[in-house]
Amino acid sequence: MQKRGRSFIGAAVTLRDEPREPEIIHQDFNSMTPENAMKWESTEPSRNNFTLTDADRYAEFAKKNHLQLHCHTLVWHSQLPLWVSEGGFDNKTLIGVMENHIKKLVTRYRGVCTRWDVVNEALNEDGTYRKSVWYDTIGESFIPIAFSLVRKYDKKVQLFYNDYNLEYNNEKTAGAKRIVKLIKSHGVEIDGVGYQAHLASEATPTAPGAAPDQKTLEAAFHATADEGVNVIYTEIDLRMNTPATADKLKVQAAAYERVAKSCLAVKRCMGMTVWGISDKYSWIPGVFTGEGAALLWDENYNKKPAYAGFLKGIRG
Ligand code: G3I
């Protein structure tokens, strides 16, 4: 991967009592994303009361294991405490609240975070802006403001806009392109766009929600990369209807292969992160009823065919 000019293969991590996970991280990954620990509800549950013990554990783990740390996430409508989302702040005060949060987190993890997801999931499926306290109070300029504030407190960390369903090269992808242009039009830096890649591993790539064919994945990357930013996959998981069968696992392996290939085929794709390690803990069954088995290791930490498919895609 590095020989081919890419910088990381990562996993979302929840530090838990599972001895196989650190071993796997050590063997297979050089980057990690804290799955929940750096989100607003975990780090600033009430105004100016920062609870960073848990987030610190992830930063320490990354340092100790020489991993890149993909820090997730600063400005998001979800996992946002009510004191922010229903605080009734005016424009100026809300920007102050945002700056106080960004300043604390970005300064504390300066030199440890390789990348920050600065703004997460600001778009609706049709590419318009999602209703949120940020957009409703500040308007679209909440996005360049957030990026400029992160840069103010860390001159080096890479700044990402991150969203899901950008992989289809459709209206939502065009929305992400518009965001890149918007940020730049304010004279503010953005390093890249994160494509989450929470997709279904259907045999037919055109099925709704399925991982699209490779050409579409590449075109979706180009939509933003051609604006002069890097692109990455930030949260890959390719779910199936459970229970898994040999046939479905084969289809999933092929989907992992084409997702990986699409990154390697696009020069500006710098790396990929899978959203977890074992199927045992994936968020999918809790949200998509009857679906799951979306990751590279099964519930017993055995490598699945998807692992070989992903590796094949990486090696080309
Ligand atoms: O920590 C509490 C625990 O104290 C409580 O007993 C338990 C009861 O439900 O909940 C625990 O919190 C859960 C948290 O994960 C930590 O496990 C929340 O309920 C649960 O909603 C939360 O889910 C996370 C989800 O984001 C929330 O939106 C998932 O783990 C996490 O994988 C998921 O990740 C998101 C990315 O951040 C953004 N992109 C989409 C992706 C998938 O939804």
Strand percentage: 15-25%
Gross CATH architecture of the largest domain: Alpha-Beta Barrel
Instruction: Give the helix tally.
Output: 12
User: Which fold name corresponds to the CATH topology of the largest domain?
Assistant: TIM Barrel
Mean pLDDT: 97
Gyration radius (Cα, Å) is 19 Å
Bound molecules: ligand G3I
- Shape annotation: globular
Look at the helices and sheets and give the structural class. Answer: alpha/beta
Helix content: 40-55%
Low-confidence stretches: none
Q: How is the largest sheet built, in terms of strand order?
A: 1-2-3-4-5-6-8-9
What's the N-to-C terminus distance?
A: 10 Å
Element-level helix/strand string: EHEHHEHHEHHEHEEHEHEHEH
Largest sheet: 8 strands, parallel, barrel
User: Number of domains in the coordinates?
Assistant: 2
Give the total of beta strands. Answer: 10
Provide the CATH top-level class of the largest domain. Alpha Beta
CATH superfamily of the largest domain: Glycosidases
Provide structural commentary.
- The chain is of the alpha/beta class and 316 residues long.
- It folds into two domains: 1-6 and 197-315, Alpha-Beta Barrel (TIM Barrel); 36-195, TIM Barrel, CATH 3.20.20.80.
- The protein has helices at residues 20-28, 40-43, 53-64, 82-85, 91-108, 133-138, 142-153, 171-185, 214-225, 246-265, 284-287, 305-315; strands at 8-13, 31-34, 68-75, 113-120, 158-163, 192-195, 198-200, 230-241, 269-274, 291-292.
- Strands 1-2-3-4-5-6-8-9 form an eight-stranded parallel beta barrel, surrounded by six helices.
- Strand 5, helix 8 and strand 6 (192-195) form a beta-alpha-beta unit.
- Helix 10 runs parallel beside helix 12.
- The longest helix has 20 residues, at 246-265.
- The protein is globular.
- The N and C termini lie close together (10 Å).
- The model has no long low-confidence stretch (mean pLDDT 97).
- Ligand G3I is lined by residues 35-36, 78-79, 196, 235, 283.
- Its EC number is 3.2.1.8.
